[in-house]
Specification:
The complex is a heterodimer of chains A (150) and B (89).
Chain A (H helix, E strand, L loop, with lengths): L1 E7 L7 H8 L6 E8 L3 E2 L2 E10 L1 H18 L5 E13 L3 E9 L2 H18 L2 E7 L4 E3 L11
Parallel strand pairs in A: 1-5
Antiparallel strand pairs in A: 2-6, 3-4, 4-5, 4-7, 5-6, 7-8
Helix pairs in contact in A: 2-3
Chain B lengths: L1 E5 L12 E5 L6 H15 L4 H9 L1 E3 L5 E2 L10 E5 L6
Parallel strand pairs in B: 1-5
Antiparallel strand pairs in B: 1-2, 3-4, 3-5
Classes of the chains: A alpha+beta (150), B alpha+beta (89).
């Protein structure tokens, strides 16, 4: 079971209840819901919001590759995974990403949840522009995209 | 030939539009796009070094959503996306 989506903040918000409903199953004994939210400080600056930019098709493709890699690299075959990422402007405290996983056992669930967020950071083309209390804004530097296939 | 560069992340500051149109020689590659973008930044932003750094540290994505290397040959009218260093989550 696998669900992915890019959610434009102009249209709707990311909802934890949707993630809970998606991964809920008596097949699994362990579930973890990870959320990333907009924080009010970064690099000694007061942040008031973040604009997220996304290459949607490539992001969804990277999510699918990460999900499939979990089969091979982590050998976690029985799983349910829900990944949604926001794009557009988010205010403080709003959810930018939800990663919900359900597995048979807790060890697998913790490993899988951590694996997915770390891989997204390396492989999914998403960018953040921070907006500060002094009315300035700046794109965060980021890291060159990691891609496994050419 | 004509190609369209779709702008993402920090490269959106290169233009008020979502993309840049470039004219390149036939059989041009991603490396030629990098050079042409640097020329564009030299003219339009007086060689803004931080913008040029973005171009040199970016990857590029073909129209069929593959990250492609510097020797990838571009097709006429192909849309190529510039992928600056990333950082979502």
């Amino acid at each position: 079971m696998f669900h992915t989506k890019i959610v434009n903040s102009k249209d709707s918000k990311l909802l934890i209840t949707e993630a809970e409903n998606f991964i809920s199953s008596s097949d699994f004994g362990a579930s973890i819901i990870f959320t990333g939210t907009v924080r009010n400080q970064n690099n000694n600056q007061t942040v008031i919001g973040i604009t997220y930019d996304s290459h949607d098709e490539l992001v969804i493709k990277s999510f699918e590759e990460i999900y499939n890699d979990a089969d091979h690299k982590l050998n976690i075959k029985d799983k349910s995974v829900f990944i949604e990422h926001a794009k557009g402007y988010l205010e403080l405290g709003e959810i930018s990403i939800i990663i919900a996983v359900a597995c048979k056992h807790r060890d697998e669930a913790y490993v899988l949840s951590r694996y997915i967020i770390e891989e997204i950071k390396k492989r999914s083309p998403i960018w953040k522009k921070e907006h500060y209390a002094n009315n300035e804004s700046a794109w965060l530097k980021g890291n060159p995209i990691v891609h496994e296939k050419n | 030939m004509k190609i369209k560069i779709e702008l993402y992340g920090a490269s959106r500051d290169f233009s008020s539009q979502n993309s840049l149109d470039l004219n390149l020689d036939n059989n041009s590659t991603i490396k030629d796009i990098r050079n042409e973008l640097i020329n564009y930044l030299d003219k339009k932003f007086s060689g803004n070094e931080s913008y040029k750094k973005i171009v040199n540290s970016s990857a590029f994505c073909s129209e069929n959503n593959n990250i492609v290397s510097d020797n990838y040959k571009i097709k006429n009218n192909e849309k190529i996306a510039i992928i600056p260093p990333i950082g979502g989550g």
